[in-house]
Amino acid sequence: MKKVRRLFVLVLACSMLFSMTAMAKEVGAPVADYELAKPAEITESWFWVDAYGNIVGHAFDVYSKDPATVMPSEIVNAAIDEDKMIGEYMNNAVTGIWAMEEVVPVAQGGGVIVDGNATDLTFSVLKPELSRVYSAKDFAASLNGTVLNVVKVGVPTNFSFDVANVNFYTPGIVAGQNVKVYQYDDNDTWTECNVTEVREDHVVVDVTSAGVIAFIEVTAE
Hints:
Layout: E1 2-6, E2 42-49, E3 55-63, H1 73-81, H2 86-90, E4 93-94, E5 106-108, E6 113-114, E7 117-118, E8 124-126, H3 130-142, E9 146-154, E10 164-169, E11 179-185, E12 189-192, E13 194-199, E14 202-207, E15 211-217
Antiparallel strand pairs: 1-2, 2-3, 4-5, 5-10, 6-7, 6-10, 8-9, 9-15, 10-14, 11-12, 11-15, 13-14
């Protein structure tokens, strides 16, 4: 028995769904990587043949990528709905925003303390509107400070509370760093939140409602 290679070119109409350019909700917004959901295509097929060159069985296929690495389309679409890259969506994080070249990543992994009671709740970390980013940058400038990140905090539907103590994962932050957190209201005003702890890779904040918050580093007084 010997084997010969036969090359097949497959055209998959469904792959067009993931090769089209995505429309972002904001100019310059990062979008999820469609290629991660693109199906693995067969680029070559190998067959067993007999001594006369007749195909007697299928040997194996060669794929354009490992099929196990294909990201489910529902995850990709959910990430796109939130204007997030896949990693941001999977980790409930914001690692990049429009109008800023570099930010300190902000994520939330659960364990929110609500009105003094420990819970297993997780608050969502979402992208803010572009206008809020510009507003935060202007506000930080008035403090002689630097915007580290701006995120929108989301809470479970129909969930009410007075104060939630939220531990944000902020890799790169160090203990003693003078990080302040401010929340935006509809009057274009930023109100300071109570920061209960700044330690390595974490900023712990009291928030009183869902909404946009800005992490701002200011010069220590």
